Amino acid sequence: MGEEKRDERAKTPKPAEAERHDGGRGRDDGRLRDIEHRVEDDLKKAVEYEKADIAETGREWRDQLRNDGAELAADFERDKEKVRQVADDVRHPERIAEAAEKKLEHVADETLEVAHAVEHPSVIVDDAKQVVAEKKHALDATAATIAAEFTSPADEKRLPVVLRAFGVLLIVGSGAALPGIAKSIYHAVALFSSGGMTGEGTSTIAVSFLHLAVLVALAITFIVFGVRLIRNQRRWAALMSYALYVLIVAGGLCSIMLDGISYDLVFYLVVLIITIALQSYLDPTLLEERRAHRKAREAEERKEGEAGTLGRDPSGKGYITLNFFNLFWIFVVASILGLFMEEIVHFLFVVPGQWQDRAGLLFGPFSPIYGCGAVLMTLFLNRFHKSNWLIIFLVAAVIGGAFEALTSLFMQYAFGAVAWDYSNMPGSLFGGRTSLPFMGCWGLLGVVWIKLLLPFMLRVVNFIPWNWRYVLTTVAACFILVDAVMTLQSLDCWYERLSGDPVDTPIQQFYDHEFNDTYMADRFQSMTIHPSDAVRGK
């Protein structure tokens, strides 16, 4: 009996141990309750957001129905009034006769005016002068409005002598370059007319003439830009920078297609850097406007982040705000998702059981054609997010097919690279660069993207804390930019090796050593390079 009591006492937990045991369980219960509360709060916020979205959609539908009803009622009233007038005229035929008499009197008056004008021609001249004066006044008012838009308080400041001298240098240099470009165009046209270009491909001829046209436009724009600098028209010059950006990019792409990654690109890079630097200096109000907009946007982002609506278009016209942050992360996420989707489709349907790396950049799981396609679809279809799926399908099919064809054209002309060829597929278009079935796939992807994935994408992006957004985006954008530049350079070196050209520059030797043919063929398994298909070297 004594031993049984001792055993029971031994089994009974001591008070201190029981307290510690209960305290630990209490802390666990408290943490669980905190987690449950946070989950409940998140669910409530999500439900409230969805309710608000549904309520907004309902309001838009009700407003549309109300407007349609009002228009129908107005049309009905107008038709009713016309019927009433016709019936009233039928009951009173004398009114028709009176109207006919008034019309005859009006015609007679016009006839007398014409006869008077014929007898007195000066009346016609005076009327014409009055009409011309009124039109001139309207044109002057329009010109004054446009001039006001293109003037800035910064125009009152005189530009430094160095910049005005730079403007003179631009005029002189571009003017001196124009005869040389014109001579090149003349020789190219003469050579083409005489059949001297028969040995070159049609693509080479087309890109060569396009490059010459871009150089002419660039030289003329530089002359006008220099004139604006001399006249101290800062805002005009700053706004002209946007035209220079387009021409510089077009010239750089043509140069890559004709000569690959060569030292000619240094010219375009230097001009681009100078243009960017000049634009902000020439019109500080543009920079001040951007700074004020950025500060206001940061304050709005803080509020939107707390409300859970960050990234949505505040105007309600589109679904998502079209800023660099949203578009960049759309590019990144779509590049990754598109790559995995293509690899899975290839593994399951194209060559069952064979896994193929279909990456499009030198580093990372990225397929930029899907990223660029998603950005283009977002830009063009953002306002159609509530439209009929058929409209979205058709627009997305055209955008995707055109982008796919242009990308294939650039890659083949620049590096002789072929990553896809639909020539043997029914509905092939543009020499197999795209096809109707794949345009249908682009259309389907556009519908899925706008209707389903874009809202999901916005939620994923909003997981990035608002105070990390700019730093993280800057770092990621720099990585993608370096990755893209190194990809182009490695493809250029791959082309040089396959075409038998010497690899003698330090950059080429670096890529030749680090990214040889075996590495490139393994990295870009879906791509082949045929130097004879490229524009250059012909």
UniProtKB/TrEMBL annotation:
Organism superkingdom: Bacteria
Region Disordered, annotated ranges: 1-34
Coiled coil: none
Transmembrane segments: 161-182, 202-227, 239-259, 265-287, 320-341, 361-382, 389-415, 435-458, 470-491
Cited InterPro entries: CmpB_TMEM229 (IPR010540)
Pfam name, any one: ABC_trans_CmpB
Keywords, ordered alphabetically: Membrane, Transmembrane, Transmembrane helix
Protein name as it appears in the record: ABC transporter permease
Species: Adlercreutzia shanghongiae
